[in-house]
Amino acid sequence: MKIAVLGAGMVGRTIAVDLSDRHEVYSFDRDEAALQLLHRKAPAVNTQVADLTNFAAYSSLLEEVDLVVTAVPGFMGFRVLEAVINAGKSVVDISFFPEDALQLDVLAKSKGVTVVTDCGVAPGMGNLILGRYNEEMKVNRFECYVGGLPQIRKKPFEYKAPFSPVDVIEEYTRPARQMENGRIVTKPALSDRSLMDFEGIGTLEAFNTDGLRSLLFTMAHIPDLKEQTLRYPGHIDLIQALQLAGFFSEEKMEINGHQVRPLDFSSALLFRQWKLGEEEAEFTVMRVIVEGEKENRPMRVEYNLLDQYDPVTKTSSMSRTTGYTCTAVAELVATGQFTEKGVFPPEWVGRHPVCFEFILRYLTNRGVNWKAIINH
To answer: Where does the record place the Saccharopine dehydrogenase-like C-terminal domain (predicted)?
Structure first.
């Protein structure tokens, strides 16, 4: 098939490289340097400089392709997804945008296209796992813990981001929604911190972030739903200090006659501090817990992941775990294994055993190994 990948950042490049083994891939981005890097990694990928905020041009830009993958920054993700649907193309999306993608369901059905959103590691794999086991048991509790961290801890932040600092700051500032006792509650981001131990890593710090997204509505029958982010201990204190000092404020302030948003200034500085090197060792750690009952007996399912930078392909773990989950779902759509029309969060794909097992096999074949512990 002809597949367009919108966005040639670190994860977008990984997606394009993986898909190019089996399909004719086109990569679009405004950053010529990112496209050149992609071309060096995968000369077969057709690269083109394009302004992806020119939504009126999508019909002509995507005219020749059969399927689209969107891997753009979150602040433009919803508009990009809407433009792709309006162009009449099925799409698999990993853009972490704050808007509700299900608002586009009617449009997608009217265009006769398949749209699968949030197809990364988190959101993504947690949704797929919950969607699968929700079909087999009465779920009472769901917990998801996830983090991407550098192998070498470097003060002061002990953190590196494979994507835009603006998206990370958004994660640290947006109120976190959770389900407690059957009711949606809102808590401050970074709250409810705790320490957790992970084999091969040690002790990490867990805290609330707004990562449940569609699960709050598609799995509203489950009394308790929680998602938390993982960092090295001490990271929260630094972020909270910056937040309290106003470094993340969106209100403009005058400095030497210039109007400046502290958020823009902070993002520019943190980009240098948090930029993940192309060959910098890092890892992704994740734990998903599903608890409930099956045939009147307690049942507990736990999936664990520890994935590390691949020095052979020089691919970051976050790119692998996010990108390959996305390309697995893209392959499901491309090969006609998932053909429903409309907008679908990952849990609605994972409820199909064939789709769920396909994704796990696809990841395993690329060295992303999920380990399941199932107790009846």
So the answer is: 120-367
